[in-house]
Amino acid sequence: MENQHHIHVSSEVGILKRLLIHSPDEGIGKVIPTKAQDWLFEDIIHVDTMRKKEYDLYLKILLYFLDYEKIHSQINTIDLPESQRHFYKPDKENYFESDKVIEPQRLLAHLLESKDLKQRMIASICAHEGTAYSLQAELMELDNSVLARVMISGILPDKRMIFPPIPNFIFTRDIGITVNDHILLNKPKKKARTRESIIMKYIFFNHPMFKEYTSNIIEINDPEDFFLLDEDEQEKKIVTIEGGDVMMVAPNHLLVGVSERTSIHAASKVIQLMHERDIVEKVTIVKIPAKRAYMHIDTTFTQVKRNMWVIFGSFSKEGLKQEKGDYISSLGGSKSENEIEILQYIKGRSYDDPIQFDYLEDLLNDISVTDLKSEEKTKFIYSGDNEFPHGRREQWTDSCNVLALKEGVVIGYDRNDKTSKGFQKQGIKVVKAAELLDKFKNEELHPSEVKDTLILLPSAELSRARGGSHCMSMPLLRTPLW
Ligand SMILES: NC(=[NH2+])NCCC[C@H](N)C(=O)O
Known about the structure:
The chain is α/β, with parallel strands linked by helices. The protein has a single domain, classed as L-arginine/glycine Amidinotransferase, Chain A, CATH 3.75.10.10. It has helices spanning 33-36, 47-66, 68-72, 104-111, 115-129, 135-140, 144-153, 194-206, 231-237, 264-276, 317-324, 360-371, 390-396, 417-425, 433-441; strands at 16-20, 101-102, 176-179, 182-185, 217-218, 246-250, 253-258, 282-287, 301-305, 308-311, 341-346, 355-357, 379-382, 403-406, 409-413, 429-432, 453-457, 474-478. It has a five-stranded mixed β-sheet with strand order 6-7-8-11-12, sandwiched between helices. A four-stranded mixed β-sheet has the order 14-15-17-16. The mean pLDDT is 95. The site of arginine has 15 residues, from loops.
């Protein structure tokens, strides 16, 4: 079943077998303070530190778990000064090139071998970025792997910057989500993320890796009369969806966040399409406040194992009750600023009559017990271990955004100390990525022996980009949970 191109994800925690990642490219080092917010970064980044001290460790962990031989056979040489980090650079010959940990830049370089696609892609990107027509001819002359790098970083080999960077491309989660054997593509809310989406559409629709899945790629579009509407109407009816708001929690169940980035109209379309095409039976909408701090639902909760979740305390039962304090709802007025709404739509049941959940924990517990058949008590770990004011501080630096390599083994950020304490209280060991990698290297431990562990990545630079390991991954294949 695991052929080279197999695509299937039916949970958030089944053993991770294949994913798309993008390593920080040189464009990230070109973000300037006045543009940082427009480009959705909280600050400017020291790219060397981000790569060598942080992201490289992430890659090594992924490779050890997903493609052991690929890394273990070379582990003693890849970091030597004379290797010049070529192992990590997608345009170099000694790049690791794995069919499990996959870099879109490599897929893009492959696509550009077709002259027709090369022309079309150059035309689309230049039109989108509004560059001079004459630049197209110049780009046509570039070697394909160089052009792939340029299309992403925006920087020509002679150092001219021709496009803005797309620094958020490291957050591959947001470009699309694998829903069983379908891929739901994004339609980004933010202009800064549009080029990523153009590039990925070409890849999904043209690369041999996705060939058997062309009819399973789902695009969500604006209503047909959208361009006729005035601006106010457009604002109301806009369709935008980003992958961080879509979570494939069980074979029959998809969560869709309505947030700063994903609109109600997009969510409605997803419900209809999922039911019409019989892809999942339940779609649950989780509406969160449209705020930069929360951006996507995966910044407020992710799954650790079948019966364990890490969540943002202000959205929890206790948090909401506390915030409400002595406020009497029947008097009207505004509710808590963190109020969330959870509505579940089941195939065959009237859309006017969704099932409602009062609290996030109720929904997550229902997923664990009903959908994932967990027989153990559902456990919750809270951001900052619910200690004031660490819950909010650590949510901001992605304490709730972990990537599961398998049930119970997740990657998180080292700066979220209090949340780590919360993990430990629930029986999860906490280990630094570098220490774990040393053990793998010395063969004291094999990735298959790692159980119930939170792996901590250094995160001083990465967290300024405002995404965690969950955001930095687009799973294509996970082993089914049963
Ligand atoms: N799935 C996620 N939470 N992605 C985080 C994306 C962060 C990125 N800087 C943005 O604002 O778009």
